[in-house]
Queue: 2 jobs
Job 1
Amino acid sequence: MSTVEALYIFDEHNTPLLEHSYVGRPPASSTLLPLYLSHAAPRPSLIYLPNTNPATLLYSVIQDQLLFLCPCSSDTEPLQVLEFLHRVADVLEDFLGSPLLASKIEAHYDVVAQLLNEMVDGGIIACTEPNALRDVVDAPNFIKSLLGGVGLPSSTPSSLTPSATPFSLASRPSPRLGPTNTPQATSSVPWRRANVRHTSNEMYVDIVETLEVTLSPSGRPLSAIANGTVAFTAKVSGVPDLILQLGCPGGVQNAVALPVFHPCVRLNRWKERPGELSFVPPDGRFVLAGYEVDLLGPAALDAFSTSASAKSSPKLNIPATVSVHPSLGPSASDFEVRLQLNPRFTGKSPAPNSSSTGGKGGLGRGISGAGFSSSGTTAAPAIEEMAVHIPLPVGVRNIADLRVLKGNGDASYSPGDRSIEWHISSREISLLMSQDRGGGVGATATLRGTVIGQEDETAESEPAPFATGTYDYDDEQTPSQQEKTKTEPRKIDYAKRNKVLMPSCATVSFSVKGWLASGIKVESLNLDHKRSKGLGSGVTPYKGVKYLCVSRRGVEARC
Amino acid sequence: MESISRISSLLETARDLTLEAANNANNARRSTPKELPSGQLKKLLDSRSEREILEGLRRVVTMSYRQPPSQTLPFFSHVIKNVASPSLAVKKLVYIYLLQHAEHEPDTALLSINTIQKSLTDTNPHLRALALRVMSSIRVPVISQIVSLGIKRGAGDMSPLVRRAAALAIPKCYRLDPNTEPQLLEYLSTLLGDKQYFVAGAAVAAFLELCPDRLDLLHPHYRSLVQKLVDMDEWGQLATLRLMMVYARKCFPRRTRKVQKTPHSNTTSSKPTKSTKGFYDTESDSEEEEEKEQNMEEIAVLDPDLELLLKSCQPLLQSRNAAVVVAVARTYLYLGTPEYLIQAVGPLVSLLRSAGDIQHIALHNIVQVCLTHPEPFVKYYTHFLVRSTDAPHIWRLKLELLTLIFPYAQLRLQSLILAELSHFSHSGSLDPTLVKESVRAIGRCSQSPATSPQTSARCLRLLLKHIGSADGHLVAESLEVIRHLIQRNPSAHRTTVVRLAKHLDAATSPQARASIIWLVGEFAGLDSENNIAADVLRILVKGFADEAEPAKLQIVLLAAKVYIHHLNANPPPEPSKTEEPKASPPLLDSYHEEEGGFRDENLEAHSQPTESHQPEKPHPIKALYDYILLLARYDTSYDLRDRTRVYKALLATPTSTQLASLLLLAPKPVPHIPSPSETRKGYVLGSASLVIGDEGGVGGLRGYDDLPRWVKEGDEPDAALRDETVSTSASTYDSARTISAADRLDAAAGSSRTPDSIMSPRSLNGVGESSVGVSASKGKEKTLDDWLAEESGSEEETDEDEEEETDEEESEYETESESGGEGDRLVK
């Protein structure tokens, strides 16, 4: 019943990077990989392989282009294994630095091996908290130098017990006087490392929202959900006790639905006062909370059908929407994709406002590094990485005459592709925006193309498009009549056949810095000095807030 | 919840990533240490300098990950002798090597046992835990007794780290030598009662591995485990929830109480209750009988101990771990009442926010819950809308969910779902299977018993619209579903068949035509006064040569059916004919009566119309039939010719049609399309068998445990077992509970104040020092939240003084570390 029998990691070219078996005799990675690859392309995360001995359940996760495989010979809870694989990726990234690259693993097998041994013991998942692991495994040195001396200073190989070094002795305010002098190497809070020390104390809140919007052919939003994640970076000495106050027009409790929290968050506090997160953070970077916001509100369904007109549909405030108009032109083989940009958002401004602030006045970005302040502020959020993606049916052989009618951008399609990509750079967006600044309706851009179906199909159906419309064996019918009946439905048939070739949807990708679809803001981030321990009284950590709204093909319009 | 690595990939722009990747590819690939010749490597390992040994070990470990063990095995003795090194870093690497290679050289490996054993008594708890873990992981059966002793020692260790290592070593020791089980059980039962939540979690995991059936060991620990559930780490929570599901099923009989149904609860609560009952329908027949009383409703009466479990699960619904959320949902589904389950629905849906791999498994679990309790899912419909980016295994489940909630949705939502399905059915040219599935989904929507006739008719209209489409898949699949719908209620759909027959002019897909022709044939016997079958046949015969094979087959079949109906209606006069009507099925009998007027007088007059060459023209149906037979006889298809021959033989003698009617006019069973996941309904929520389905064997995958039945009333272990032990060892557990994460935090935070009393090993061992300062007085059920919420003011007074002290000290360190930092910078 052991959960994790082995862990295999492959790099982006599927060459084995690491093979670590925990318990039993799991099939080797060389037998599993071909079986995994033989599955059709969007591979499910759990594959059953009856042909191995013993029959194996194969779990897979792809993270940072690395493939993590985990075989199991007996029934286990699938989510447990998958969550574990994600944690392995998180931990490796925490120790080896982000992004996780094959070369980093190769260069630090000794660290990885220690981590893997600590995380799973005899097939049972033991410990996956990065902070707890930092207590027992030393991160590779280059990370330490990067973080500016973070980490336990006990990595000197000569010291058997960390407490023996004068430094760590000193780090304990009151040396223990008990009968057994057990050094407190373990942390008292399971998710926080012991004896955290930072020379510069910093706290950063990153709120990322991922949009998932579905628009009906009429342009009415069917569903609009923003999936939010609050990522937190704590580099604060001692044991800080923090209060993060989130605010939202209309109240957090009304907006935020189905929240999940890191174990450090006090649930009762949230229940009593929604929007207030009180917690003792782990050291380093972690996900504090996740939530979702229904941008349409609860009454969306009622509004959907009471009024037929699109105007009364719930207003959706997102940076860009798209609409597809198929079956245009004389032979109904043209289609048009219109991109509508919200005037509130600008493209990359020529002179970036470097002193970008998030939320309220006090929460300026402490250090203007991190490559954030280059564009996009709360005052004037900017759209970046705009791309429209139009998937095409299988039958489409080529797209003729693909051109951007209005606006600009770079639409690319090569024969045989299953989709059209239309990229618009942020500079082009700002150009577009400036053109109709006066109207206030925002800018539109249009892409038009003509589909060409399979050649052989038309050729085949040409001689006898209809089997029954004509009565070939009927002598009474005159040939002329026959012709008539033949040609007329054929036109309709073209339209019909081209309809099959029409794209059925288009999706928009973009990212907007400094703006959140839900309107959630960080109102305050305070350190409770009374409760926090180990931080000097006069020390106030730097605070920084960053908002990011992302759509990864998340805004989808149908037709 | 999204994992941090996924979020950071969003936050860091693609450009940064690629830059760093390129950088790294350049640097690190080159910088990976080149492999040294083995002689040099051995020299490094044998060196006196620790730095060199460490370097040598790093290289060996790296080698062991890149090459087969035969390459690294020669260094075995060189590596192992470093096990006695005083350096922790060296030890760790030696241990890693040892674990990987011990099996290949068990004898040499044994040499190291002694040194490892010594480490068990080291002052550093990390080292003790490490040594215990390594020793138990060496797969050499000889040492099982030593390991067992080590576990015994570890179980009594004062450091929770070591106790946890001991708990995890128990199943490993059992695997080495099953004879050690009695001793191991003893250690395990001590560890199960450990007051440290993360020791208890590990102990539960070990218990599940070692002896999942020895529930008797659990009674005394049940309540403390349940109370510790919130503070355990996520993996401990998973193990505990898994264990508790079995425990509760075997120890708390399902008691029910009958109450008068309240009118309000009719729609919301009574239905789920019933369906839950249906789900466990095998459990007791008496319950089934009771349910027959209409206005009485059964309400589960929960054992207080069971309720304790259900209540303590609630905070876990906000867990970041998807597996924990599903485990809680499982607990509520199989142990709790519908009211509890409803709380779990939202968190289950929230799992759809996570990565695609987790989404897939979560959807399977959602479908499983939705099959029995669809109503609470209705309001989350927006999450189930299919997106163009979804992978096939995802949209398949989403479509199923939409159809499952469809009957319970309000009208507007129903029309939205139908619009959604029809969108995918005709624009789904992206993926033919999506078309197929969405058409089937429309069929399921209209089939569901809860769907109103109007909605059903609407579904049918939707499907009929598809018939003219140029998309072959769509038409074929639509007709398939239409056929099912018609067969469910043939009499109501007579006109539909006529409509379909008209579509024969437009439908081009051979499959679609075949389907329509078959349907016409099935209805050839109904209402023969104005049946269109013969006429359709007449038209089809004209184009017979241009038809595709599937359609031809059906045309021949239609001809045979029409002909046999004709024969049954107008039996040729024969001496033996009197017996015929009796033999023919009753259905046909009735037509026989009605259709008297249809009878051809001419034919009746002649004894053998087929064979005698009469000057009169034969009946048109007969003529058509003969013509078809003639055409088919010269067809290129073997299959068609063979079938034609069969029909010809069957209907050779017009006087005896019994066999033919038996074959051709047999009543067809009404098809029922179950929801695709119906077949998996029997599997337990959260199991891998649920995801794999019957593909993994009928009884589930290897190692799959079915849900145990509820224990029968009277067979359950005495509830006092749980009470009694708690009361006798109350002091132990009280103090155990007080030292939860909260108190540890307290201890750490206020370590300057009362470090000894809280962290002293004596209290850790649970000797019952209930006077542990502030924390003990706060009652037993304190969790982390409570503690931090109600941090008492009295404490703060004393804080103030000591805080200053701490601050002073702190500032000292501050400067020190700062200078250290400066030093670092200088170095850089």
Job 2
Amino acid sequence: MAADQDETSGTTQRAEEFLQVFKRGAEFTQDLLRENERLRFQLLEMEQGNVAGDGVGNVEHLKSRIDMLESEKQEILSRIQEVQQENQDYDNRYSEIEAENNLLANLYISSYQLHSSLDITEIIRIIQEILLNLVGVEQFSILMLDATQQYLRPLVVEGLDPSMIASVRVGEGAIGQVLKSGERRLHTPEPSADLLAEPPVIIPLAVGDDIIGVINIYKLLQQKETFSDIDEELFNLLGAHAAMAIFTAMLHLERGGQPVFSDSFFARVTEDLY
Amino acid sequence: MSNYKVLVVEDSPTMRQLIVFALKRIRGLQIAEANDGVGGLKKLSSEKFDLILTDINMPIMDGLKLVSLIRNDPNYKEVPVVVITTEGAQEDRERALSLGANEYITKPIQTAKIIDVVRSLLDGVG
């Protein structure tokens, strides 16, 4: 009986012990599950954190890329503006060169033609051509100083009745003043002005320091409203070269058209040179 | 523009020289000159030209008559013709265009204008 009681007690004790072990196992299992849950949560948090961290990085990267592209775009736009400006400069320069080329062509050809003949009629025709074709003059006259040196006499009248152009006394009126001063007159006349007495353009014809005549321009061709830079250069050229051409042709005419060089001419040149 | 031949018909040596000066700036262009319409016709009958540039006011045969004869010639019916007129002479321009001229240039002429007009017409030929 006692043995049975002992056996029962031992069994109960073992059962108690088993229950205790089982209970601790269950508690341990619960602890493990909680720890697992905590770790899973932590892992999830970390994963989410990592994803969030990559997004920020991407945005920063993209912002940086945008800034770089924006900078490149500004550089390209700036370069385009520079190229456009350069093109504009080239266009302007091309136009200037064309204008200069045109001017030089006009001057070269006028000069070449004026000195291409000793025939006074031919010289006059060339002056007419220059004024008509290169400047665009419709009405003009050429007055030369006469033998008395007191009057300018009409030599050529173009586009007008020659009887309308009278001789002019040196120093009198606009034309006489230009002969005296040697200064070209270029002005816009008043509507009521007498253009024959005060032409818009009076060009003194100079041989060296001597003024031997004038070219008076009364009217331009229709539609030619103003003078250009080329016209002014042509006036300068005519003032010097037309005068010389007329003077040379006059000497040639007076010498009977023979280009004969006298002994005294040779002697004078030799003396001056050597 | 190489191998193109242009005939300049102009009685004024000054103008002719200026026109030729301008045309020489077109690379490769071959240029022939005549003093008036009759001289121009002689050139046209002996050589083939790709463009004709003529003044209107000329002695012996003026530019209008020349344009008319050119357009009646089967060999030159389609060849571009440019007339040079005095500024403001609108009647001359209209008459020249009605006779078959392709373009006109007014005096006083600009070398750049000559080059532009001739280049443009020869581009059309090419």
